[in-house]
User: Fold this.
Amino acid sequence: MTFDVIVIGSGQAGVPLANRLAGLGKRVLLAERADLGGTCVNTGCTPTKTMIASARAAHVARTAGRLGVRAGQVDVDLAAVVDRKDAIVRRWREGVSKRLQVDGLTVVRAQARFVGERQVEVGGEVHGAEIVVINVGARPLEPPIDGLAQVPWLDNATVIQLRELPAHLLVIGGGYIGCEFGQMFRRFGSRVTIVDQVGHLMSREDPEISSALEDVFRAEEIALELGTRTARVEGRAGEIALTLGNGKKLRGSHLLVAVGRRPNTDDLGCEKAGIALDQKGFVAADGQYRTSAKGVYAVGDVLGGPQFTHTSWDDHRLLFDILLGRSRRSRFDRFIPYTAFTDPQVAGVGLTEKEARERGVPFESASMPFGDIARAVEVDETAGQMKVLVDPKTERVVGAALVGAEAGELVHVFVALMQAGASARAIVDAEFVHPTFAEGVQSLVMKLDRFSLR
Assistant:
């Protein structure tokens, strides 16, 4: 059967793109081999942030004494936490299903594979289309660690299915996933040790940003083994042992591996359609999402760029306009913000100081402890650090990084400013509400000599 468009994968780019194209009268086929909604709804944002909310509630209750509130014993019912998470996941998944019930859109729940030029086999039938969009996403990477394949290790999808609390969770990987889960299970009551071969957590960040988070983790008695690799894994369920590159041995009850993700292109048949992949298996595409095969586009995590839900959703928006001939804007011409939902949150947009120096980008910088914000003192959320880089000629923001309460909300002040191409002076001249966390963003920018009121 011939369609106008075939979309492979129901992630955060595929669903809205298929829905909107069908709304224009296009005949669209959407193929999905697993649960509707992709990583975000099923094993990513929705379930993890739901469980993190439970972990924070437990932490706030335990530490309420700092605010003069005496709380009793705090017990975490992990099974109840998981049940709540599952209910919310079902709700979002059902919402995706309803969104796909539109005229002109055919949904087939089966594996899709290319069998030729813009020819896709789905559920035993071959379909063709003028346009094919790949939105197959990525999955956890299994690193080549000696002995890992012989032990029962967890990834981001399986760890959220645990209904009994790990006695001691060992985490390999100090990035977003490792940090979020490590802190979450510590607050649930597990002992936690995070191992990373790099010298800092979230190593993309400048050292002062990473260090601020590390201080919080250590204060919560999360053990950190940084700057050393995991050389060997051995053991069995309930008894896992790690041998580190420095010779140290760790023992725990459970092992979470969070060292990156690999694309779901292994069984996609890209070679039969002339679709080029990079060395890691990600689809190679230009600024307009075009692959090496005519009429075939790729969006979302399978591109290998920043693997964020909001980036995938934005991919759909840009590609939709490109397909309609309304725009030729490049996917590389945008500012991509990010947030790690640790507590405090870590957020940023644009370049770090290290990246700016490496690229020869001129900048002036200012930093400020989060504890200098009046609101932070009042609610006793003083942990963290803020940093901004500004172009000395244009006064435009080059980059910003925040560690602190609601950093994921605060970063959007900089996102909007950067997207508008406006001067950071706009933050100085604006009237910010007191007392708010956002007021601290203004104070940060005013630490730059050019914006100082002294």
Observations:
- The first strand starts at residue 2 and ends at 8.
